[in-house]
Every structure is written in C-alpha cells, then in structure tokens.
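Hi R.,

Here's the chain you asked about this morning:
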Amino acid sequence: MPAFLTDLVRRVRARLRDSPLLARMARSVTWALIGSVLSRGTASLAMIIAARTLGTSGFGELAMVQSTNLLLSTLVGFGLGLSATKNVAQHRGTDPGRAGRVVALSEAIAVCAGALMAAALFGLSPLVAGGVLDSPEIERSLALGTGITLLGVINGTQLGILAGFEAFRSIAATGAIAGFASMPLVGAGAVVRGVDGAVVGLMASQFIGCCANHVAIRSAARRVDVPVRHGGCFQEWRMLLDFSLPAVLATIGVVGAEWGGRAILARHGGYAEVGIFQSAYQYVLLVSFVPMNMGRASVPLLAERLSSGDSRGVAAVTRWAVRGNLIAAVPLVALGAVASPWLMGLCGPGYAVWWPVLALLLGKALLLAVAKPFESLFTASGALWHVVGMVAVYCPAILVICYVLRGHGAGALAVANVIGFFVYLVMLQVLARYRGHVRVPARETPLP
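And here is the predicted structure, written out as tokens:
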C-alpha cells in the first residue's frame, strides 16, 4: 500500500478511536451503504432486464405504473418512517416502553393506511389511466399493481423503525434479500406476461422484503429491551401526528412533482420518453446512495444529540455528513457523466443516444450530496414545517419548467429537476444559516 494511503488509514483509525460518536456514525453509514448498494444495485439490474425485455414503450408503461403506486405508498410510508426513526431513536434508551408503543402504532397505521390507499387506487384506476394519463391501455396493469402501494407503505415504515434502532446491518440484509429476489421475479414476469408480469414480480419481491423487515424489527427490539406491544399504543398518536403530518405533506410535494413530471412526458411525448427518463434516473438513484444513506444514518444520531443538548455533536455530525457525501459523490458523478453513453446503452440500443439526459440528472445527484445533511438536521430537530414551505416552492417550479420545455421530451424533465433542486438547496442553506429555524439546545457538552 502506498505510504500516503497507509498514513491516511492510520489517521482515520485514530480519529475513530478518539470519537465514539464518529465511530457510531461510521458503522451506521457503512452498513447503510452496503445495504443500499445491494438493494439499489439489484433493483437496477432487475429494471435493466425489464427494459431490455419490454422495449422503450413497454418499459415506460411499467415505470408509470410503478411511479403511480409508489406515489401513494411514499406519501404515508415515508412520513411514518421518518417519525418512527426520530421517536424510536429518541426514546429507546430513556423510555423503552414508549419506543415500543411507537413501533406498534407505526406498524398498525401502515397496514391500515396502505390498504385504504391501495383500495382507492384500485377503484380509481380507470379514471387515472384513461383520464389523467390518457392511456387506457395501462388500466389493468395499474389496478394489478395496487399491491405495490400497500407493501410500499409497510416497507417504508419498517425501514424507518429499523433506522431508529440504528439496525443498519439488518437493513442491509433485508434489502439484499428483496433485491436479489427482484431480479428473477421481475425478469421472468416480463418475459412471461409483459408489463403485467413485471408488476407482479415487483410486488412479490416487495412482499419478501416486508417479511424480512418484520423479523429484523423484532430482533432489534429484543436486543435493546424494547417491548413491542399493540395494547395501549394509540396513546402515542399525537406524537406521530405532530411529526408525520408535515413529513407526509412534504412527501406529497416531492413525489407528486416526480409523478407529475412523468405524466407530462407521457401526455406530450409518449411512454418512450418516460422510459428514457426512468432509465437515466435509476442510475442517478444509484449514484445518490451515499447521500441518501448518510442522511438515514445521521437522523437517529442527530435526534439523540439534540435531545441531550449536545450542540457540538450536532454540528460535528452535520459537518462529517457533508464532507463524506462530497468525497463519495464527486468522483461517482464525474465517472457517470463520462460513461453515460455506455450506461444508457445497457438498457438497449434505443437508449444510448439519450446519454445527455443522464449527464444532466447527475447534476441533481451532486446537489443532493450537499443538501441531504441539512435536510436531516431539519428532520431530527422537528422543523419539518419549514421543509414543507421549501417543497411548496421548488416542486411546482419543476412542473412549470417541465411543461414549458415539454417539446424537448425527457431532457425537459431532467433540466427541471436540476433547476428545481438547486432552488431547494439554496433555501436550505439560507434557513440553516439562520439557525433559529432549526432549534439546537444551548447547553454544550464536550464533543465525544
């Protein structure tokens, strides 16, 4: 090993020994990254298989069905997951009974809300397909895929609970199980029954993941002596509502803008444009796995530090997250931009010429690397209403820009995403600079 690398490794090990907080964060992020690489990597491979099997139009239909169902599942699942992460992390050490009630209530609400939203989409699938999307041919696939909504809500909530326990090793294992299952299931489904078969494959892999998450949650709760009992859990409804409501509203804006942009493409450019954009976007999600998982790992640490009044620890976690994100994201974005023709070509010969769409979207991944730590700080401090206000500005901007540039197909939505997220990053930076919007207790303790 070169001398400079040996020296770097030695200094990193010494820093981890001197700072238990940094060591905890490093372990959490490492396992979160491993899980994300496995789950996102296998999911991307499954979608590449589907893209090559179904063609651009067929894959565009699958992407629209998936994004429509994920729109509804993310609305509730992400909000419940964030709330569970914050409250489980905050109370698991000081009030295990309350943490257990939060887990039980989150699970119960996830099942009920997911079932209601799935039933609503099933009943409205003719209207959504024929009226909103002007594509009656996907009505059956849309109705068939409503199970994605139910399972997506449950899965999002379960992942939030596991993050609250800092059980990122378990998240890695369950994500790998679901991801590896998706490749043969989605691929075989696409070959046998086209779009409908791929939808069934997605649902089956999600169900496997939810079962694995359930086992992991019970195991994580036992390790820290948190009793998960449904009796009396509804006394915690106010705590979940106060946090989940703004989280759900913010998610409605973000996911709604993503779905709305794809709907604009579908109506004005056809499903081939949706397929092109989705093919590029899956690589962006893969590149963004470091910032996303750094954010997921830092929320429980930030919530714990905030509850103990350790403002120095809060600042340190945020600073480490920004640096780590940039160190990981910059080379990945640069490599992805250079290799974008080859990466798009993996989805089939009709995709390679659309490499500029991927190159543009990689700019959003770089912006996300800077924004995510500040977003996590707002989340851990409970200042989500400020996030709602920022989302209310940048998400409509994405739709307006996409509509104005609609004649440019998938490129229009790529440009809209980059501009819109840049606006969001600027707003995050301004509010974070004036820290009255993110309440950090004044008492300081020595940095661990």
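One quick note: The chain has one domain: 16-437.

Cheers,
M.
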